[in-house]
Amino acid sequence: MDVCTVKKILLSGLFLILIAGCEREIPAWYAYIPHESSPIVSVSLRFDTGSAIEPEDKKGISRLTMMSVLEHSTKQKPRSEILKELNDRAISERIVVDTDVSTFLFRLHKDHVNAWLSLLEQRFRHPAFAEHEVDLLIRQEKERLENKILYRSEDFSRDVLVEKLFNGHPYAGLPVGYPYTLKKLSAEDLKAWWERSFSVNNMHIAVSGPISPDQQDRLIEILSDFHPRAHPSAPELPQPALPDTIHYILIDNGSDVSAVSLGWHLPFNRSNREFYPSWIFSSYLGEHRTFYGHLMKELRVKRGFNYGDYAYGEHFVQNHYSVFPQPGHPRLYQYFSIWIRPLKNQNVPFAIRLVFHDLEDFKKHGLDSLDYVQTKDFLTSYINLYARNQADFLSFSQDYAYYGLEDFPASSKQWLDSMDYQMGQDMIKDAIDLHRMIVVVVGGDTDSLEKILTENLPASPLYSTQPAADVLKRDQAIEAFPLPPGIIERYGTLDFLQKR
Hints:
The chain is an alpha+beta fold. Helix content is 41%, strand content 19%.
């Protein structure tokens, strides 16, 4: 057997790895995936902990703790030396924190594995949690959140949608926390959280690339002794309560434009067959930052309303500046959402009406067979592009393992291929919930919007350039479409900067 050949065999809860004819047992929490065509070693180190387990008054502590461990001093080395070693070796490190899991992702050249192992050991075993460094981090993150709430209405609308959909549930708090929770945290809080919530006993690691057997042994040795006496409890995740009706959440920030996010609960996730037709439907409505979706064509291409309009069949976080989802966000409970990026306040009522009008039509009739088949075929190819690098691939593979799926992306393709048109149609119709939806609007002139919603008043679109005749004809039907009644909640941005 070639020295680079590695085979994995699952045996009594242990991976038996055969290397160069020699046998050694490694823990079940460790997985190695050969990838010898690249000189890059990739590591996805995941913990079964996240914001869902955080106390309400400490939301954001997991993310701050992980940031401090990676970016701050250890008891042996100051932060400046650690950062210099990382920069000199071009070692890439990032964290991803969500409700159910938290992940460290590393990418480095094979020549720097030993140096990285030394840094990993120091930071994981002996983080300093120096008060001055933690205090500065908290101030910076608090200010970043405040700026997002005050000035990034499109992102903020999506955050509020999740909070309101999961009101009273462990998913309700944002993984990044709130300004009023971050300011209460201290270096001692982060130290205690690290020792209590991150341990070899709730850890999974996936490694890929040209890392030697001795280096793998060293990595396993470092992690085997990582808080071994801590047994972090898994978050208790009850079934979320469904809204009793539609809720319109209006948040006034005095702007000339408004962002809209709306969504509803889904009674399934990627482990269930029902997910895949719903995924097809969301892709048909519009993939993130792409131009071919139904909503993008209706709101931007035909009417010139805004920059973008997209739909998501599960919780979505953008992977940096790409159009693809970021791995590391598997969730037991999922939701369907639509994101209408900022448009003029005068056009918000019409845009909401258009979405409701078309959703009702899809609820009655579903997708036609050609749209269904073409979108399914597209997704079968599109998912191959999700992983931008091997670290992403490892993390997506861990996401799939969370759902009990064996192979990324093959298992999703198999599910898609198993769905015939009629079966998919029925599932799409069943998945659309028009009566228990959350609609979030963040922008200005919410008084006028409230009046339109309350009295179901007509509201014509405002065009800079006259659209085509067929568009104007369709506008008439949309303007006459009755907005569904619901509960209206009013907020200001200050309500999210301080505890409500």
